């Protein structure tokens, strides 16, 4: 019973991370239908920038995080202006492949600049200290991480659903031509979306690094799982991404505990296939209709 | 007409003679001024920490030889290709090394699965191959003339550490945390063999991870549920540190054993306090205890400052290539592959700067037959046993 509770708690904490990664993927997909394969590497870039500020420059934690979020957001927006915008005539698949290229460039650059050795990311909360409730252990870090993840999710939801910028983002995603005709600056909105997704990625990277340790490839697994969580929850639903993350995190943890550790990673992909067969729009996604 | 025929015959004969003489003089990867050495290692991906350390060590060492004048007028040129720790890419890389870069020898290769995928091509193309870091995957392969290995076997390491834990540390039951491939499985087999050999110890269970896994919390809970008092870790540095931290979070402190691939001092930084008291195998002296080895490390760092962050792996890279360099030196100015093979076979208890007591022979391709055990104490490794020998397998 203690083991079961520990599996659930561990799964939920990991699921929050998956949800956070999924949010960044969904945010971009909703507005531009581009599946950003570089999301994980943008997240790693954010974590490395924060690491440099914290360790090499000795800046305070919050300043380092703020600079990292800003820099990664700028990198995301820059990528949109410099690479994606000029290839706007390319097919959707073409643009997705361009993001794959960005992923390779970023991971190579990170390895070159910071080296491939594993580093310890200093975080104000400890992974080894925490609360023990009847044999179930929750570390300060995981608690803080879940809280930060939830706060970010809430803020993003408010931004997209309750502000004029959010309204413009939704308008651009629903009908680009009509939005432009109504005077919405689509280019700026797309750049803003890329920037937001970058910042969200950096936040996910900074929250992942203390758990998984900092390496250029640390986001490989969380990105794939975040993608699976997005498909599970619905590629165009932000609450769906969060729900998908939690469900996937728990399913993985319980599967590893009671069925097979070896096939834990495979489970995410089995879930994607099953979901696409049974409910392609995801748990909370809306069915997409287009009139011809 | 007769003249034309004679001329034609003369031309054909000249061409045949030229190609025959060229065949004798031209050894692949050797020119009067250069020796080309190649390797495929993970320079990117989850195992790049090993690849950059080992590959960087090989490269820096060969550069230092070049700067000291090379060997018999020849200098080394190193070709390092990236396989991302993927067997399919490693197999393609070795073809590229042999057919495009025309290497004289391939040094190293990280990952049993990678070596497994490439071994057929390398052995059949009769390319000199020095120390792939693998399990014993050579059984049943007859033509091993050009293969030389100065790397201990994981199987024997697993067995020796398990027997030591049973005899000297009071271990009653042991579980294994391992990478789900031939590397991890080789150590699992070694531990099981050790359990069968020693008295009063049982095998409690095992839990695996994939090399890209970022979360091993479920494995820690599973290992605790086995009731083992000792856990053997056969992992990459990242997952090795993660599992130790996860066990710490559960408040579970079993005795820990680990393979020498986790011997780098970086583990103290990654795993923190929890790394103290762990027992690890070792096959060359501990840095800081041996002047010859420390001098080599200083040289490597002079050529590549980044190696400061992975001293153990950089030195391991040197241990793979230095017997080859010694053999090339012994083979003399008229360098041929078979000459180098004969020189390698002549090594008897040869001590390099890193590799010690290397012995090859006509029927012996496993150059090392001993390891010792170290214990982590206050952020340092301390030797706790003398050399422990094992039977060479090939």
Task: Describe the protein.
The complex is a heterodimer of chains A (292) and B (394). Chain A starts with a helix and ends in a 14-residue tail after the last helix. Chain A is globular, with a radius of gyration of 19 Å. In chain A, 51% of the residues are buried. In chain A, α2 packs parallel to α4, α9 crosses α10 (238-258) and α10 (238-258) crosses α11. Chain A has a single domain (2-278), classed as ABC transporter involved in vitamin B12 uptake, BtuC (Orthogonal Bundle). The mean pLDDT of chain A is 88. Chain A has helices at residues 2-32, 39-56, 61-84, 92-114, 140-162, 164-174, 176-181, 186-212, 220-233, 238-258, 264-278, and strands at 130-133, 136-139. Chain A contains 11 helices and 2 strands; from the N terminus they run ααααββααααααα. Chain B has 394 residues and is α/β, with parallel strands linked by helices. Chain B has 2 domains: 34-152 and 287-362, 3-Layer(aba) Sandwich (Rossmann fold); 154-282 and 374-389, Response regulator (Rossmann fold). Chain B has helices at 2-25, 48-67, 87-99, 112-124, 154-168, 182-197, 217-225, 237-249, 266-271, 291-303, 311-331, 337-345; strands at residues 34-41, 75-82, 105-107, 128-130, 147-148, 173-179, 202-209, 230-234, 255-258, 279-282, 370-377, 380-383, 388-389. In chain B, strands 6, 7, 8, 9, 10, 11, 12 and 13 form an 8-stranded mixed β-sheet that branches. A 5-stranded parallel β-sheet of chain B has the order 2-1-3-4-5, with helices on both faces. The relative contact order of chain B is 0.13. Chain A binds chain B through residues 3, 6-7, 10, 14, 107-108, 111, 115-118, 120, 127-128, 130, 132, 137, 139, 208, 211-213, 215-218, 220-222, 252-253, 256-257, 261-262, 264-265, and chain B through 43-46, 48-49, 51-53, 180, 207-210, 212-215, 217-219, 221-222, 225, 237-238, 241-242, 245, 248-251, 266, 269-270, 272, 306, 309-310.
């Amino acid at each position: 019973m203690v083991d079961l509770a520990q599996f659930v708690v561990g799964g939920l904490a990991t699921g929050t991370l998956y949800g956070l990664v999924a949010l960044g993927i969904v945010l971009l997909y909703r507005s531009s239908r581009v599946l950003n394969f570089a999301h994980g590497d943008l997240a790693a870039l954010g974590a490395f920038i924060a690491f440099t500020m914290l360790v090499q420059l000795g800046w305070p934690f919050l300043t380092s995080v703020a600079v990292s979020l800003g820099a990664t957001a700028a990198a995301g927006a820059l990528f949109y202006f410099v690479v994606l915008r000029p290839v706007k005539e390319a097919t959707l698949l073409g643009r997705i492949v361009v993001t794959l290229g960005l992923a390779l460039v970023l991971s190579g650059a990170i390895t070159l600049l910071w080296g491939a050795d594993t580093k310890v990311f200093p975080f104000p909360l400890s992974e080894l200290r925490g609360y023990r409730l009847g044999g179930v252990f929750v570390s300060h870090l995981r608690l803080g991480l879940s809280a930060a993840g939830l706060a970010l999710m809430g803020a993003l939801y408010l931004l997209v659903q309750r502000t004029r910028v959010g309204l413009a983002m939704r308008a651009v995603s629903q009908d680009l031509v009509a939005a432009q005709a109504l005077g919405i600056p689509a280019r700026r909105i797309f750049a803003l979306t890329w920037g937001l997704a970058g910042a969200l990625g950096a936040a996910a990277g900074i929250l992942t690094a203390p758990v998984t340790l900092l390496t250029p490839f640390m986001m490989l697994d969380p990105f794939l799982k975040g993608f699976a969580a997005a498909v599970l929850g619905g590629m165009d639903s932000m609450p769906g991404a969060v729900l998908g993350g939690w469900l996937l995190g728990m399913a993985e943890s319980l599967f590893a505990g009671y069925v097979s550790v070896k096939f834990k990673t495979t489970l995410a992909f089995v879930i994607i296939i099953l979901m696409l067969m049974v409910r392609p729009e995801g748990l909370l996604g809306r069915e997409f209709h287009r009139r011809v | 007409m007769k003249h034309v025929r004679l001329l034609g015959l003369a031309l054909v004969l000249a061409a045949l003679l030229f190609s025959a003489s060229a065949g004798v003089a031209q050894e692949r990867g050797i020119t009067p001024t250069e020796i080309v050495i190649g390797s495929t290692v993970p320079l990117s991906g989850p195992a790049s920490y090993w690849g950059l350390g080992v590959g960087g060590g090989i490269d820096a060492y060969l550069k230092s030889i070049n700067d000291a004048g090379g060997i018999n007028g020849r200098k080394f040129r190193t070709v390092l290709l990236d396989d991302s720790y993927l067997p399919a890419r490693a197999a393609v890389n070795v073809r590229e090394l042999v057919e495009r870069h025309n290497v004289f020898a391939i040094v190293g290769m990280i990952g049993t699965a990678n070596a497994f995928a490439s071994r057929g091509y390398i052995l059949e193309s009769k390319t000199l191959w020095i120390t792939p870091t693998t399990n014993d995957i050579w059984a049943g392969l007859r033509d091993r003339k050009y293969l030389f290995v100065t790397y201990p076997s994981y199987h024997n390491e697993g067995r020796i550490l398990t027997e030591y834990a049973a005899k000297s540390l009071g271990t009653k039951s042991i579980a294994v945390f391992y990478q789900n491939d031939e590397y991890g499985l080789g150590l699992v087999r070694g531990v099981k063999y050790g359990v069968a050999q020693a008295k009063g110890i049982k095998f409690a269970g095992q839990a695996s991870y994939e090399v890209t896994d970022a979360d091993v919390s479920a494995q820690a809970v599973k290992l605790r549920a086995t009731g083992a008092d000792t856990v053997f870790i056969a992992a990459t540095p990242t997952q090795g540190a993660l599992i130790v931290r996860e066990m710490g979070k559960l408040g579970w402190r079993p005795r820990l054993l680990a393979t020498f691939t986790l011997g780098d001092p970086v583990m103290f930084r990654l795993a923190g306090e929890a790394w103290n008291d762990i027992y690890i195998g070792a096959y060359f002296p501990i840095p800081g205890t041996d002047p010859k080895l420390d001098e080599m490390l200083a040289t490597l760092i002079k050529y590549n400052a980044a190696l400061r962050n992975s001293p153990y792996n950089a030195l391991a890279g040197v241990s793979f290539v230095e017997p080859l360099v010694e053999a090339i030196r012994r083979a003399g100015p008229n360098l041929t592959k078979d000459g180098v093979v004969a020189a390698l076979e002549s090594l008897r208890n040869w001590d390099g700067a890193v590799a010690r007591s290397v012995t090859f022979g006509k029927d012996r391709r496993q150059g090392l037959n001993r390891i010792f055990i170290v214990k982590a104490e206050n952020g340092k490794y301390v030797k706790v046993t003398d050399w422990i020998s094992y039977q060479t397998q090939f």
